[in-house]
TrEMBL record:
Residues 1-25 form the signal peptide. It comes from Saccharum hybrid cultivar R570. It comes from the Eukaryota. Gene3D superfamilies: SGNH hydrolase. PANTHER family: GDSL ESTERASE_LIPASE, GDSL LIPASE/ACYLHYDROLASE FAMILY PROTEIN (AFU_ORTHOLOGUE AFUA_4G14700). This is GDSL esterase/lipase. The keyword Cell membrane does not apply.
Length: 312
């Protein structure tokens, strides 16, 4: 999650899959960006599209100083992101800052902003913010790995019940997160759904017979969660006062890219930087499509740019 302000809008990013590092590392002309990428990631490109010079620095680097935290929150922003985190606290537990803890850090930031800026100014800033979520992939990877180990001892019906239980837990936690942020003043939400997980290199390398084919089961698992997310946010928009959202279809964009790889114009000739993360070129194309493409193509009901400029 990142909180920042410019003359057009405030941006808050809640990124549990992508890692946001320090601004100094990001803007270094010749050095590494410290991303799970060969350059910038999707969050970096979205931040730039929204008018920020770079992605904001991490919360934990700012927390020791209230004055610095509040000043940065109003200016360049604050990142609460944690690589490996998921919607569930149990996902890769002990190796990341879970989503629930990120929200608590944001709550603490709000309290400190109020102490320095007052309630009215703070609430106005938060209501103008855009809250960006990219989370869920790690939950599905962990679940799929566990299912593969236990599948020989479970019937198909039992496995389907396990999937249904997983979806219920994920949507319940996601709902609690959104409603908590809404109660704290958040109004504008940008969500990136789960991509084509069965086609990432890690999945294809583990495919049966080592054919390198996509894992249909993992793609179906991702598609099912994405359907549930679409229903969730449509429901929230109908019952939460002032709630506005844009849902980006990373799954659909990934599928279109794999169906027609030549259309991507990938100068690096690779879609991925490592076993699971996209390369810089892929991140840039995703951000461009989510931010400014025609609504209904890869975003709904509006795109991220329209969301950022929405006046409430």
């Amino acid at each position: 999650m990142v909180l920042g302000y410019n003359r057009h809008s405030v941006m808050v990013l809640l990124m549990c899959l992508l890692v946001l590092s320090s601004v100094r590392a990001l803007v270094a002309a010749a050095g590494p960006t410290r991303r799970f990428s060969n350059g910038y990631n999707i969050a970096d490109y979205l931040a730039k599209s929204m008018g920020f010079a770079s992605s904001p620095p991490p919360y934990l680097s700012l927390a020791p100083s209230t004055a610095r935290l509040v000043l940065t929150a109003r200016g360049s922003g604050v990142s609460y992101a944690s690589g490996g985190a998921g919607i569930l606290d149990s996902t890769n537990a002990g190796n990341n800052i879970p989503l629930s803890k990120q929200v608590q850090y944001f709550k603490s930031t709000k309290s400190q902003m109020i102490s320095k800026l007052g309630s009215r100014t703070t609430n106005l800033l938060l209501s103008k913010s855009t809250y960006l979520f990219s989370v869920g992939s790690n939950d599905l990877f962990v679940f799929a790995t566990a299912q593969a180990s236990a599948s020989q001892n479970k019937s198909a019906a039992d496995q389907q019940r396990d999937v249904a239980t997983l979806y219920t837990s994920l949507i319940s936690n996601y709902t609690a997160t959104i409603t908590d942020l809404h109660a704290m003043g958040a109004r504008k939400f940008a969500i990136i759904n789960v991509g084509l997980l069965g086609c990432v290199p890690a999945a294809r390398l583990s495919s049966d017979g080592a054919t390198g084919a996509c894992l249909d089961g993992l793609n179906e698992l991702a598609s099912g969660l994405d359907d549930a997310l679409a229903s969730l946010f449509a429901s929230l928009a109908s019952r939460l006062l002032g709630f506005v959202y844009s849902l980006a279809d990373y799954y659909g964009l990934s599928a279109a890219t794999f169906d027609d790889p030549g259309a991507s114009g990938n100068r690096d000739q690779h879609a991925f930087w490592d076993r699971v993360h996209p390369c810089q070129r892929g991140a840039m194309l995703a951000a461009q499509n989510f931010y400014d493409s025609r609504p209904g193509r890869y975003t709904a009901p509006i795109n991220f740019k329209q969301l950022a400029y929405t006046s409430l």
